[in-house]
Write a structure and sequence with these properties.
CATH architecture: 6 Propeller
CATH topology: Neuraminidase
Order of helices and strands: HEEEEEEHEEEEEEEEEEEEEEEEEEE
Number of helices: 2
CATH superfamily: TolB, C-terminal domain
Number of domains: 1
Strand content: 35-45%
Shape: globular
């Protein structure tokens, strides 16, 4: 059911008139082309074992609706006991959802958040030592920049008072009305990764001294991580437009989703120090020395935000595309044509997180000012995938 197509077109036109450039989520239609893949060289498997190739065709079953009535949800972090933490971009709050009953308990409001345009309280992640240190990390837009903070979560305190004062671990990421990036995640190496945007200033992406249009890698304390490709720098890869999806496959290889402008959205296999082309290239480029995407889509079919890895495939949430994409992988190449699910059924899809085995958590994004919410929006769904 394509219930939001007209709304998306009107929002695109309004943004182009007011901002003078295309937005990640409501860009004008690109070339009328089917999804295609362009290979990046696949590194050898860290385990030394041959990798299984997932079937060309998969499946998605909506197991249940976990929670409804969420306001501008953006980031999601499983707590570990079946419960979920969800951030609200516009309200700057973090809410705990009971994974069984769907009951919502507000932990508190994150101070200093300036919610404007695509900015606000964005991605959240739990410390690798969350069971002992109870630290929640959050990426948000302030009055001056995008930054990452950590907060102590004290569950025994009353609802609304469970977040400690934010400790800023990283600051200075360029901010804008558009292209604020915002996804953060701890990798298998226990380092903190952050996807940033170029804030509408395209020149920042190719500037290795800038934090805009990058994937950053840092210690939990916000220092440049050991082994980064550029000395004393948190920059891990560059030439990105706006990264909002980060995930690792079973061989611990990093993948990232990226918004295109008018032509191609991308899924990238991320190699340290590589240049992903923006603004010189959008999608596959035959020259320039840029790292080509694993797969690409016309912007009207995707506008991707979160990604997750499960059952041999990357699962990618589409905002403007209003669908969940499955990209089966063999190494760091797509082993079959990407496959779309849930097209138009739940509107804009913001975040997808692996829930273990063949399960995913999926967060909708219809109350962010660009969707057409119904009485249950926004919601968290549990999916079974293959």
């Amino acid at each position: 059911m394509q219930r939001r197509a007209v709304t998306a077109v009107l929002a695109a036109a309004a943004l182009l008139l007011t901002a003078g450039c295309s937005s990640d989520e409501e860009a004008p239609p690109g070339k009328d082309a089917a999804a295609s893949s362009a290979g990046a060289a696949a590194p050898s498997s860290p385990s030394g074992k041959a990798e299984e190739t997932p079937p060309a065709k998969g499946s998605v079953t909506v197991v249940r609706t976990v929670a409804t009535g969420l306001a501008s949800p953006w980031g999601l972090a499983p707590v570990g006991d079946g419960d979920l933490l969800v951030s609200s971009r516009d309200e700057a709050t973090i809410t705990r959802i009971d994974g069984t009953t769907g009951k919502k308990t507000e932990l508190g409001e994150v101070p200093g958040v300036a919610a404007e345009g695509e900015g606000g309280l964005l991605g959240i992640a739990l410390s690798p030592d969350f069971a002992s240190d109870h630290m929640i990390y959050a990426y948000f837009t302030s009055a001056s920049d995008n930054r990452i903070v950590r907060m102590l979560y004290t569950e025994r305190k009353p609802a609304g008072e469970q977040l400690g004062a934010p400790d800023t671990v990283f600051r200075g990421i360029p901010k804008g009305v558009i292209h604020n990036g915002g996804r953060i995640a701890f990798g298998p190496d226990r380092m903190l990764y952050a996807g940033t945007g170029e804030s509408g200033d395209t020149g920042l992406s190719q500037d290795k001294e800038s934090l805009g249009g990058k994937i950053l890698r840092m210690t939990p304390d916000g220092e440049p991580a050991p082994g980064n490709p550029f000395p004393s720098s948190p920059v891990y890869s560059y030439g990105h437009r706006n990264v909002q999806g980060l995930a690792w496959d079973r061989e611990q290889r990093l993948l990232a989703s990226e918004f295109g402008q008018n032509t191609w959205d991308e899924l990238n296999a991320v190699a340290p120090g590589d240049n992903y082309g923006w603004p010189e290239a959008e999608g596959h480029a035959d020259e320039g020395g840029f790292h080509n995407p694993v797969a690409q889509w016309s912007t009207e079919d995707a506008s991707p935000s979160g990604i997750a890895y499960a059952e041999g495939s990357v699962w990618m949430a589409g905002l403007r595309g209003e669908r969940l994409w499955r990209i089966p992988l063999k190494g760091t190449e797509a082993s079959a044509k990407p496959q779309a699910f849930l097209e138009g059924e739940y509107g804009r899809l913001r975040t997808v997180v692996a829930a273990g085995g063949d399960r995913l958590w999926l967060v909708t994004s219809n109350t962010d000012g660009r969707g057409d919410p119904d009485q249950q929006d926004d919601r968290v769904l549990e999916l079974r995938v293959s």
